Amino acid sequence: MKNLVNVVLVVFLFTACSQQQRVSNHTPPLDYGDKGPAKYTDQLMNKLENGVDFVASGNEPFWSLEINIDQNLTFKILEGDSITIATPYGVKVKDAAATSYKVETGRKTIEVIIYDKPCEDGMSGKEFPKSVEVNYGDKRFTGCGSYLSDYRLNDIWVLESINQTGLDITTFPKGLPRMELNLALNQVFAFAGCNEFSSSMEVEGKRIRFGRFTGTLMACPNMNFESEYLSKLANRTVPYIIEPGKLILQIAPDYSYSYKKVD
After folding, report:
1. In a domain, 11, yes or no
2. In a 10 Å sphere around its CB, with 0-12 CB exposed, 13-18 middle and 19+ buried, how is residue 206 labelled?
3. What is the pTM of this model?
4. In whole angstroms, how far apart are CA 263 and each of 38, 52, 153, 215?
5. Where is the DUF306 domain (predicted)?
6. pLDDT for 112-130, tens place per residue?
7. Residue from 146, 134, 162 nearest 28 by CA
8. ω into 61 cis (within 30 of 0)
9. Which neighbouring-strand residues pair with 242?
């Protein structure tokens, strides 16, 4: 009876699928070189290190956009206006897979809309994962963009502690929970101590947006831990801190998961 309750709990939290199933994401895969995304120049990597989460640009006229989600949004038009404002709260657009950042600045209103739709740059022919629209005053600008991501995330990580409290390995006879973050596929493959799970994901600068987890349905003694552990990640956007050999997911201001690099 206890095993049946555990199975029902897992079904309630996560949709079952075979262990080999892979969850698709709405953004196309990125090409990776030895030092991370091949299309990332040193300039873009410097922007990421300086806190920039999203970059975009367009042509005719040439314009550029940088968004630090926690601080500022900067919009520049070649030989025209340049504006830097505090980044407004992102709002999901109704009836569209998009996020809007809108604010009034003096006599003009600026709205940046990031669409979850691939975009091809008309001049270079390069493809980017996001289509971008900027409405500034009475003018409309369109172009392409992408979130920046730290290539060091692309690895296998084993959970070491929760909220700075180390895990008792004896309570995980099958091994400690671990996850593989695959930036090329925009997917995460996780072992939660008993079952294998997978989910879509997207790195948004210094945040990871996880999708719904699906996985196997084996019953184990530590099912309560497994359900609680994954529920704090599923369908959430989680800030992260990455250091040499270490990854911290900041679930809440006073709650975190700490991982060790093993691959």
Report:
1. yes
2. buried
3. 0.76
4. 21, 28, 11, 23
5. 155-250
6. 999 999 999 988 888 999 9
7. 146
8. yes
9. 247
